[in-house]
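User: I would dearly like some help making sense of a protein record. This is the protein in question:
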Amino acid sequence: MIEGKKRELARHQLSKIYSKEPRGELDPPEFVVLGRRPPTVEQYFGYKAELAMLRQSVLERQCVIVVGQAGIGKSSLVSNLLESLKVSVDNHFEKVVWQSMSSHANLDSLLEEIFDCLSLEPYDSTQDLSVHVTKLIAILRRERTLIVLDGIEEIFKGATNDKLYGENDNYGWFFKQMMERSHSSCLLITTREPFKDLAFAETCGQSVRIMDLKGLGQDAYGFLESQGLTDVDDGFRLLIQRYRSNPFLLKLVAARIRSYFGGDVDAFIQCDSILMSESLQQALDTQFKLGIWTSLEKQLMQIMAHNDENSEGIPFQRVFKILKKQESDLSLHEFIAAIDTLESRSLLERSQGESEPLVLTIQPVIRKYLLKDPSGVIQESLAA
């Protein structure tokens, strides 16, 4: 009786219960979302291929990670995934537990709420962590569950090369258990900061898949039209190039164009300005404070910010020569590793035409942030 009441309470607490009508053979299975409330997506553009890949990944892997910069649409993509699973007859998940990681200071806090959502016995933080995880894995074998951890980058505070998760080292152990121990469920994570250990596990054939979300691509044209703008004289292409088809940034700039330029995209383009917002400023502050930053990565970001004035890129060899003058013992291997890391954080881009040298580029928004630095974050985090 008590167990039944606990289950019913967990189902109603911050949850969304879908159809309760009797189901036919072709009807989708009952789908319950427990925990925190996923974001509401009123209009959704693009990411069709990414949605299909994400859907396949959560059915095939025990751990899936969606990585991308702030505003790129990670949470919206996952929320859209839940909507598609809700109406799908081949969805094998019985329930979803959605957790916003900004609400949890540590792993104990997270597991306590997950236990409550799944109607497990009360979580006792004095017990050994392995005991609790064993209980969780047991129910994930019996009940196919999708656990979503949204915005997990905060756990990387204080990270070092020796401690990848900083003060939250037990998270690394927890993810390893969720990835390696056999069960029929999936842990789905969204983050701005990439996971070096899980990326390595993916290359080793573990049950993990990492998806790198880059932007709307060609669908950004339709997105701008939905924001009440009209494409004249190639204005949409220039906006998309400047803001890298990031839906959050495009929505921000579209609102400003409507308010201050009467919807005239060309008039805004002629101002030759990159718009920032307080929320974007805070998001970038967080990104530059998190994770492990080597002195080489810091120098590389500074060089790109001060030399890529028109966002046209700098040849790979030229950047290497500039760094060599500052660090005479710099090896090509170290340089390439720094580029790979910054690219995985969506802070640096590289491109290469046929029979042409590799070019490194920094996004205009990132460059403006680095040069302006109103909060002093760069002096604190990127000082050599």
Residues 247-261 form the longest helix (15 residues).
